[in-house]
Structures are given as C-alpha cells and as structure tokens.
Amino acid sequence: MKIRLLSGSIIGTKTQIAMKYALTKLIAQYPQEDIQLLDLKELNIEFSDGRNYLDYSNDTRYLTDELMAADIILIGSPTFQASIPATLKNVFDLLPQNAFRNKVVGVLMTAGSSKHFLVAETQLKPIISYMKGYMIPNYVFIEETDFDRGTIVSDDVLFRIDKLIEDTYLFFQSYQIVWQKKEDSYDF
C-alpha cells in the first residue's frame, strides 16, 4: 500500500512539524507500507497551466505521479487568509478531476486561531470530494497554542493525529474489501 503525506505550503513550520510527526507515527505503526512525505518546501513545482499532469516534468511530474499512485493521502495545510495556501490549490489544479478516485484522504490543518476551524470543511472537503476522494470526517485542527519551540506540546493534538492515522488506515482497509466485492460481482 502506498501512503503519501503532502505538506502543502512552502513557508512556515507548523504544518511541516505536524506532518513529520505523522510520518514518524505511520512508519512506526505500519513499517511494511510504502510511506513517503512530499513536502512542497523541498520541491520546485510549476504553476498549473491546464496541461495533462503527464505532460509536466521534474518535481511537478514526480509529485503528481506519487499522488496519483497513492492509496492513502494525508494532506497537511496551514490556513492563510481563511483559506488553503495557493501552493496547495496549485497541486489540486495540476491533477485530473478523478485523481483521488478510490483514495482515502486524511487532513491536518494548522492555523493561528480557532476562528479558522472550518477551513477544512469549506475549502478542502469540496475539492477532495470533487476529485472523487473519500475524506476522513474527523480531520485534525492544530492551533498556534498547541506548539512550543518547534514541537507539538498538546497531548490532545498528538492523540488526535494518532487517531487520524489509525482511522485513515482502517477506513482504507474496509473500503478495499467493499471495492473487491463490487469488482467480484461483475461476471466478465
């Protein structure tokens, strides 16, 4: 199974810290799986210009290929101006409409205050649904006060990230069984 974590910003550190924690937990819990962090800070991604994702090259092609091949995607996003960052939106624009078909998607959101709690609901959920993905309903929202000196200090947040990882993995396993039953029902 391919699990990809997407850290969706090129600035700031809080989302990256949360995603690296999730990466460490995933590797510890599921060492048999193919797990990788795709950090937009470390990639040189082109702006979407309407081409097919297969027509891009270098980091852009690498990123889109990895997301298209993934079974599970954990998306980490900061909140900028009560929305997701343009860098993350650009990733979605690079991908085809059905890019998340049969993929399970978990979300971690970081923000400066609790006022932005619904950004995942109003911004990410519609995009993931439009792209045919299954978003885990209980995403993790992490506030500024949950961090101290480059570390997540809230035990509640750490517990919720652990739970998101477990729920996402179990949800995918359950859906694999359902999808296989559906495939097996066809007589051709």
From TrEMBL:
Residues in NADPH-dependent FMN reductase-like domain copies: 1-143
Pfam family for this entry, one: FMN_red
Keywords: Flavoprotein, FMN, Oxidoreductase
InterPro entries cross-referenced by the UniProt entry: Flavoprotein-like_sf (IPR029039), FMN_Rdtase-like_dom (IPR005025), NAD(P)H-dep_FMN_reductase (IPR051814)
Source organism superkingdom: Bacteria
Keyword Oxidoreductase: yes
Protein name (Swiss-Prot/TrEMBL): FMN reductase
Organism: Vagococcus entomophilus
